[in-house]
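Notes, Module 5: Reading structure tokens.

Key idea: the token line is not a picture. It is a compressed description, and you learn to read it the same way you learned to read a sequence, by spotting repeated patterns. We will look at two proteins. The first is printed below with its tokens.
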Amino acid sequence: MAAFLFILSSSYFCGAEPCGDAYVTGSIADARNLIPFLATDTASSGVTGLVFNGLTKVDRDLNIVGDIAERWSRSEDGQEIIFFLHKNIKWHDGIPLTARDVKFTFEAILDPKNACPYSSDFMDIKSIDVIDDYTVRFIYSQPYAPAVSKLGMSIVPEHLLKGEDFLSTKFKRDPIGCGPYIFKEWKSDQHIILGSNKEYFEHRPYIDKYVTRVIPDLSVQYLELITGGIDSMGLTPYQYFYRTDAKAFKSKYNKYKYLSRSYSYIGYNLNDPLFSDKRVRQALSYAIDKNDIITGVLMGLGEPCTGPFFKETPYYNKNAEAYAYNKKKALELLREAGWADTDGDGILDKNGKAFRFKLITNQGNKDREDIATVVQHQWKEIGVLADVQIIAWASFLNEFVDKKNFQAVILGWTLPLDPDCYVVWHSASKKEGGFNFVSYKNEEVDALIEEGRRTFDKERRIVIYNRIHELIADDAPYTFLYFPYATVAVSKRFKGIDPAPAGIGYNFIDWYVDPGEVKYRQ
């Protein structure tokens, strides 16, 4: 921690609250890329979310509100949206942010050579017109319901990136944004340091530094937490219940718990012949006791999941197939698919080959490692062998997931506010590097996803996404496992935390530390 100890001086006020101190948090993985629209992992997006801003953002109650856009107007047919930007926003190098940066950003996203995995969210943009320095107009080729939400993608500076190769530019490790925090330093596999933007257009963030330390092991993170090496971490269920109940812990930390807008799943590579028959995938789902996982691994800190939409929205179909634990049903489906224990060794076989495959997940996530052990045991009970492989995060994504070099994978998705699920479930997203890395394709799902994007009527959208949920659940390209509860511990010296439907991090610039409790000074 020596690197994060600052020179002693007195703290001071900036507005109503005191400024100063540093917030140090832990991450199990290093970031990969700090260009916002190429940041596909949690570690990268956590940093870019503080360094950059989009046209819109989500407020504490999950409403879409303006960010760098002061306001916007939309035509009756929904195909024209005009954004009016704040006029006092500057990039961290002092250059004003203008409508030309907005146009440049979305044209870069749509440029195929930049291989942006989110490009399908913007493919209906027909033109982007700079009306003046602070007014920009988007024309869509057809109505696109999630447009205002999707245009919350962070904006990047034209004057620094024009003509650059986005895949190799040094900007991806040394970004200049317009957000509340300014990038300072990135030491690979060690830390990323951000400093507060004293000129930030909303107000100066009260916390002066934001430090993310890479600590791949959650038990080590916990030790760092209780010894003061970090100020915050996401607790494991065991830590939440049994390592934080002591008086000493309670005197120093607050705990927060809320249902996370994310879900965990086991994905099957549909390009692998082993998983081409949906009866096999359904059987594997029936053979997993989700309640056993939620009770045993999560200690109750999760809720069962059956599909790709957030449980607390009407888009989630409560009547979709849930694959209640049923070993008999699993064996019936496998028998129909041609699998049987023909040699009496307890393992199913077909055409002389045992039912055996590799199940991979990432290192550092204890829950996923425990889930792998549980499902390995439960599948063995029906004669299916899974060889578990735990892989370091960077290699896991780069060499296995992105390249579709896996058979089955345990992972999780964070859910956007809008139910549009094109980037994960449409067959056009099967391309290498796309988020449909299990290579799922269902023509009715494709058509419904496209219809959902064109539909503004909420009741019709509910019908559409309920049907998508039903179809995907039946096809079982994933075994949908659970929605986890976020369980976060934060040092009590941080004030201004306001738990809300959006979680606790949405108002980080309003967090502060009273002068008498400042730990790091500069």
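Here is the second protein, with the sequence above and the tokens below, as before.
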Amino acid sequence: MTGTTAAPVAGAQRIQAAFDRAREQDRAALIVYLTSCFPDPATSRACFEAAVEAGADILEIGVPFSDPMMDGPIIQAANQQVLDAGTRVADHLELIRSLDHLDVPKLVMTYVTIADTRGYAAFADECAAAGLSGVILPDLPVPEADAWRREADRAGLATVFLASSVSTDERLDAIGAASRGWVYAVGLLGVTGVKGVSQDVTRDLVARLRPRTSLPIAVGIGVKDRDSAAQVAAYADGVIVGSSVVEAAAGGDPAGAPERVATLVRELRAGVERG
């Protein structure tokens, strides 16, 4: 192993425990992404609850940003609806606090501008106070992350970094050493929700990451259904699904969104168990 072992922080320990529980059940962990406050705060809260009830091990909670680099058309549309409603970061943190009864690790996924505008120290403290275990900032490269990582570590938050198939070995070393909680292996190049995961490319990326970190490796972007979840679960520690879950929440009467989300998450859970 060429990467260093990360110092433990409370959020990372909660995340590790979730991966350990899944491993004890001989399956990959299921990580479910949903846009916060979509389609409205009350329905959003019910969708997160439904996802956990249906089998999600970890929640990724998307806080919308007006210029997302990673989100594809499905998540962009959800984000824009939330932004158009005038929802503020404080509203998202309030929603996250209301999910404290859900006994799974919760991470916020947003962009550097949100954290930077509020101030790294203040944002880390707000996230910790909301009950979050970690933060994912996909546009924050490891070489520029020291200031954020100091504040995240101080607040007990894990920071998950992303690795892709075009990352050099040196960059994968840095990502493996800097990450807390897990390493996020990107299943395809591009944005979310457009193409299916490239299994051969992603399997190779996971194999390259293994000797570089002791953390679990979870694959996201391009995983959308039971079959693709099962394929990824055969070689990764975690499976991350976002766009198809958001699409389920968006696809009809908001009153039915929690059940639609639950139906899909049950299918995905069956996939990671089969894998």
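Summary for the second protein:
- The first helix runs from residue 10 to 24.
- The radius of gyration is 17 Å.
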